[in-house]
Amino acid sequence: MHTLHSLFFPGSVALIGASSDPERIGGRVLRFMLEGGYQGTIYPINKGEALVQGLKAYKNITDVPGTVDQAVIIIPAAGVETALREAVSKGIKSVQILTAGFAEIDEAGKQQQQKLVDICRENGVRMLGPNSLGLLNLSNKFSATFSTALNGLRPVKGHIALATQSGAFGSATYGMASLRGLGFSKIVATGNEADVDVAECIDYLAEDAETKVICAAVESCKDGNRLRLALLKAAKAGKPVLIMKAGRTEVGATAAATHTGSLAGNDTVYDTVFAECGAFRPQSIEEMLDIAYVCAVTGSLPANADVAILTGSGGIGILMADHASDHGLALPKLSAEGSAAVLEVLPFAVAANPLDTTAQVTAVKSGVTRTLDALLSHSSCATIFAYLAHVGLSPSRFQSTSDELIALKAKFPERAIIMVMLATKEVAAVLDSHGIPTFADPSRAVLAMAGAYQMARRRATLFSPPGARPSAKALGDVSTEAAAKKVLADAGLPMLPESVCKSAEAAATTATTFGFPVVAKISSPDIPHKTEVGGVMLNLQDADAVRLAYDELIRRARAAVPDAHIDGVLVTPMLKGGVETIMGIHMDPTFGPMVMFGSGGTAVELFKDVAFASAPVTEARARELIDSVKSSRLLRKWRGGPQYDEQALVKAICKLSEFGEAHADVLESIDVNPLVVRENGAVCLDAVITLR
Amino acid sequence: MHTLHSLFFPGSVALIGASSDPERIGGRVLRFMLEGGYQGTIYPINKGEALVQGLKAYKNITDVPGTVDQAVIIIPAAGVETALREAVSKGIKSVQILTAGFAEIDEAGKQQQQKLVDICRENGVRMLGPNSLGLLNLSNKFSATFSTALNGLRPVKGHIALATQSGAFGSATYGMASLRGLGFSKIVATGNEADVDVAECIDYLAEDAETKVICAAVESCKDGNRLRLALLKAAKAGKPVLIMKAGRTEVGATAAATHTGSLAGNDTVYDTVFAECGAFRPQSIEEMLDIAYVCAVTGSLPANADVAILTGSGGIGILMADHASDHGLALPKLSAEGSAAVLEVLPFAVAANPLDTTAQVTAVKSGVTRTLDALLSHSSCATIFAYLAHVGLSPSRFQSTSDELIALKAKFPERAIIMVMLATKEVAAVLDSHGIPTFADPSRAVLAMAGAYQMARRRATLFSPPGARPSAKALGDVSTEAAAKKVLADAGLPMLPESVCKSAEAAATTATTFGFPVVAKISSPDIPHKTEVGGVMLNLQDADAVRLAYDELIRRARAAVPDAHIDGVLVTPMLKGGVETIMGIHMDPTFGPMVMFGSGGTAVELFKDVAFASAPVTEARARELIDSVKSSRLLRKWRGGPQYDEQALVKAICKLSEFGEAHADVLESIDVNPLVVRENGAVCLDAVITLR
Question: By its UniProt entry, which SUPFAM superfamilies does this protein fall under (chains A, B) (predicted)?
Answer without folding.
Answer: Glutathione synthetase ATP-binding domain-like, NAD(P)-binding Rossmann-fold domains, Succinyl-CoA synthetase domains
